[in-house]
Amino acid sequence: KAGVTQTPRYLIKTRGQQVTLSCSPISGHRSVSWYQQTPGQGLQFLFEYFSETQRNKGNFPGRFSGRQFSNSRSEMNVSTLELGDSALYLCASSPRTDNTGELFFGEGSRLTVL
Amino acid sequence: SQQGEEDPQALSIQEGENATMNCSYKTSINNLQWYRQNSGRGLVHLILIRSNEREKHSGRLRVTLDTSKKSSSLLITASRAADTASYFCAPSNYGGATNKLIFGTGTLLAVQP
Questions:
Q1: A98 and B31: CB-CB below 8 Å?
Q2: pLDDT tens-digit profile of B30-62?
């Protein structure tokens, strides 16, 4: 079974631009979560989707948005990029919906904002 | 879910030694998970221990849970250079339909060859 796939793995943007990151969960997993990891703030929860519905959202500005498609693939978008958005963005999937099992993480998308 | 706090923040040992890292949390939980992250990579799930379990083993890993002290420990025996990574705990309670986990700052383990 293929693991969680995140694309692109690395990208460089400039301030003010926008970026879209993609996540393909493990086949059969309908729950997808996104996390941002920075040296200063550590791992922070962004949002969680299940069956195309956002179930949970972290404390991030409205510039951060996401969505999930009917095939469970998910995208997140960051508009009007700021230097502080430079981070590793991690996606995780799960076949469960209630914290009773593990999360399966992708390798992440490393975003650098110049 | 709630945040766990890992201790120590950093740990340096020699290959072959055992490594112990701890996790404390504040309120009651249903389970607690440990994850490993190699530098710049995704997190890998190591082990999940339920609140009614006191100890769990997986290969060279041993996890204990003391719900009365609201703490857990992860022991890696006979460590290898490949164990060099950050380790995170994630305590969790079943608060409805969510998989949200809150991670602490982790323990950075360096295993010297």
A1: no
A2: 999 999 999 989 999 999 999 999 999 999 999
